[in-house]
Amino acid sequence: MNFTRFNAYQIMWVLVFFDLPTETKKDRKAASKFRKRLLDDGFTMFQFSIYLRHCPSRENAEVHIKRTKMNLPAHGQVGILKVTDKQFGNMEIFHGHKISENPAPVQQLELF
After folding, report:
1. Among 37, 42, 75, 96, which residue has the fewest nearby CB atoms (within 10 Å)?
2. Closest CA to 67 of 46, 39, 38
3. Positive/negative CA dihedral, 4, 39, 94, 76
4. Torsion-angle region of residue 106: left (phi > 0), alpha (psi -120 to 50) or beta?
5. For the chain, where are the E strands, in sequence order?
């Protein structure tokens, strides 16, 4: 058997940044639908318009990126960033002047 060992360079984080219009009822509905689909796909809100997801591999990250691209709203800006677990671990997060811990990966059950 050939086992692939997961390491901090293969485990990925996918970050989705967005700035969506909310002037009209239609715009607000589209923005809400986009956020809901991110949550349904296992993303977690990091900040109001930044969502992130822990992925066990690059291939798994690509699946979620593709799914996000299929759900893009008609208007607004959306950015998708894929970083390794090692890079993500180097992020410094502050609440006021106090440093806080990086978000821990969510336990996810994967069936093969």
Report:
1. 96
2. 38
3. positive
4. beta
5. 12-19, 44-47, 50-55, 77-84, 93-95, 98-100
Q: Is 19 annotated as a binding residue?
A: yes
Global pTM? 0.81
Q: What is the pLDDT of residues 61-79, one digit of tens each?
A: 999 999 999 999 999 999 9
Question: At a CB cut-off of 8 Å and minimum separation 6, what does 10 contact?
Answer: 4, 57, 58, 84, 85
Architecture of the domain whose range is 12-100: 2-Layer Sandwich (3.30)
16 touches 64 (CB < 8 A): no
Instruction: Give the count of beta carbons closer than 10 Å to the beta carbon of residue 34.
Output: 19
> Where do the structural domains in the chain lie, given as residue ranges?
12-100
User: For residue range 5-18, what is the model confidence (pLDDT) as tens digits?
Assistant: 557 778 999 999 99
